[in-house]
Amino acid sequence: MKLSREIKTAIIIIGGILLFILGFTYLKSSSLFDDNKTFYAVYNNVNGITPGTPVDINGLGVGTIKDIRFLDDKGLLLVTFTVNNDFQFSSNSEVEIYDTGIIGGRALRIKPVFDGSALAKNGDTLVSGVKPGITELVTQRLNPLQEKLEELLNSADTVLIGMDKVMNEESRGHLRSGIANLDNVLQNVNRISAKLDAFLDKNTADLDGSLKNVKKISANLAQVSDTLVNANLGNTIRSLESTAAHLNAMIAKLESGDGSMAKLINDDALYTNLNNASEELKLLLEDVKNNPKRYVHFSVFGKKNQPYETPADSIPE
How many CB atoms lie within 10 A of CB 128? Predict the structure, then answer.
């Protein structure tokens, strides 16, 4: 069958249109006959991603970004991307923009969630997120440091201004005088140190002897302590406490007038009687001394005893 020129021309035109469509979709990193799922994510800022940017899950490329456009008049951006059908994940999964390296470059990745909820299906809008890059992290860390540094510089400037006001000429003179006095003190300390070194050098032997004596005294004290420990000092102290208790009871009885000893101590009449008896005994001894024959005699012829006469000096006036 012979084709006419018109039919050949139509076939060529249709083939060219198909080739154009295939080339256009290839340049957009999409396939004309794919069966991928399409998902959406909403961002305030897309941070440099563009259509054709790859989409990955756990580092494996599973799709591409198809389109980025404004969602409303507030500036929100709607990102459309596709994912291969051979991987299933929850509709609660997050779509995150992240840095692909230190030098730069942005990509989109899905952080799959397997929480048992409904699986993500074609046309779902997933949770969006942005992971700060190295530059943003450094900026976040440097901003507080910069603020603190500025505060520190302001404080240092305030301190310097205050020091400049305080350190007038008179204060500087006092400071110089204080430094000079400190230098004199250090010189005196050096002289005292030199004298102390000389004293120690001269008296090293005496000091050694004193230290030996101290060691002997310590040893003796240790022996005495051991002796006291071995002497059952606790029983001795308890015995002393018992004796002291008995003595206190005896003193209490004496003070209360209970018993013969208490009466002997507290009764004035007994003291008076004893005093009178002592005086009479004294007179008796004086009479024996003056008239011994009255008490001791030998009478062969029965001589009568002389009667007792009270001495003149003992008769009360």
Answer: 17
CA 26/CA 37 separation, integer angstroms: 18
Continuous segment of H or E residues that includes residue 201: helix 169-202
| Whether the model pTM is above 0.70 | no
Kindly tell me the number of DSSP H helices and DSSP E strands found in the chain: 8, 7
Interaxial angle between packed helices 169-202 and 204-230, expressed in degrees from 0 to 180 and rounded to the nearest 10: 80
The burial of 21, by beta-carbon neighbours within 10 Å (0-12 exposed, 13-18 middle, 19 or more buried), is given as: exposed
Q: Could you tell me the residue ranges of all domains in the chain?
A: 1-33, 35-131, 137-168
Candidates 2.40.30, 1.10.8, 3.30.70, 1.10.155; CATH matching 35-131? 2.40.30
The pLDDT tens digits of the residues spanning 182-215 come to 888 999 999 999 888 888 888 888 888 888 888 8
Amino acid at 200: L
Joined together, the tokens standing for residue 276 give: 């009178």
Alpha-carbon torsion angle 231, 237, 240, 244, nearest 10: 170
49-77: burial string, b at 16+ Cβ within 10 Å, e else: bebebbbbbeeeebbbbbebeeeeeeeeb
